[in-house]
Design brief:
Elements: H1 2-9, H2 13-27, H3 35-42, E1 46-50, H4 56-60, E2 69-74, E3 78-79, E4 83-84, E5 88-94, E6 97-103, E7 117-123, H5 132-141, E8 143-154, H6 169-177, H7 188-194, H8 206-214, H9 216-219, H10 229-238, E9 241-249, E10 252-259
Parallel strand pairs: 1-2, 1-7, 2-6, 7-8
Antiparallel strand pairs: 3-4, 5-6, 8-10, 9-10
Length: about 260
């Protein structure tokens, strides 16, 4: 049942590949003016991307061409965004360059040793995680002292979350202390009531959207939480991670931060 459902959803990958083709054309004039400050953090270094690869890091903030090595993490062997994938050296992030693809939850990188990466990338991923503080804790763990995170999240002003309130840090902390699992649907009523379906055509009508939402553990399409830069700063401060820079570009909020251990 799960496989049939996801395979049906991955039909949209054909359209996504076309979008990926158009991305450099559509966004070439929107390339971040401050991209170079983020490029300096990853140049000739070894990193890990959670939930990638991402068109954002190809075109808006071109990082992939500069890295020495990049591995990837996805939660399942079958995802809406990547289709069928498998663990191994097949994480194709830029042209013919590949890294190791891990199949594991973003909140549980236990198969990866501590202190082994120079940087962690995440684009439009953290909002899909039920326990984002646990995710940050794990991402920090695998970073070397002095390593960097570059986090990109959707700015709710421009997407289907615009009616939803920004999540409070206290709520995220409760989730963290309660060890909330990725099967959690705490926000389902808020999402169903406030999600702007007119800005999310792939979700279908309210009945299809509700069905997809209730099966979120298998598809991970829900935005559990809504972020802004102030909330991200509190999250980073909780783990003694230093904010280096913050930006808003191409309907996203972006932060870079440095891990001190």
């Amino acid at each position: 049942m799960k496989t049939q459902y996801l395979k049906k959803m991955t039909k949209k990958l054909v359209a996504d590949q076309f979008i990926d083709y158009l991305y450099p054309i559509v966004y070439r004039h929107k390339k971040m003016k401050t991209a170079h400050t983020y490029q300096d953090l990853v140049k000739n270094k070894i990193g890990l991307e959670i939930g990638g690869p991402s068109s954002f890091f190809k075109y808006v903030m071109p990082l992939y061409p500069l890295v020495k090595k990049l591995d990837g993490v996805n939660f399942s062997k079958l995802t809406v965004w990547e289709g069928d994938i498998c663990e191994g050296f097949n994480f194709r992030f830029y042209k013919n360059r590949v890294g190791f693809q891990y199949i594991t939850e973003a909140v549980d990188l236990s198969q990866i040793e501590s202190d082994c990466y120079d940087f962690v990338l995440s684009c439009n991923c953290l909002e899909h995680i039920a326990n984002p503080l646990q995710a940050l804790c794990e991402w920090k763990r695998v970073l070397l002292p002095g390593g960097y995170m570059i986090l990109v999240l959707p700015d709710k002003i421009y997407n289907f979350d615009h009616n939803r309130p920004t999540t409070t840090f206290e709520h995220l902390l409760d989730d963290y202390n309660s060890h909330i699992l990725e099967s959690d649907l705490t926000h389902i009523n808020e999402i169903l009531a406030l999600h702007d379906l007119s800005m999310d055509p792939q979700a279908g009508d309210i009945f299809k959207f509700k069905k997809r939402s209730l099966e979120n553990y298998f598809n991970r399409c829900l935005h559990h939480h809504v972020f802004d830069i102030a909330l991200l700063e509190k999250m980073l401060t909780f783990f003694h991670i230093d904010l280096v820079s913050s930006d808003q570009a191409c309907e996203n909020i972006i932060v870079s931060c440095k891990v001190n251990k």
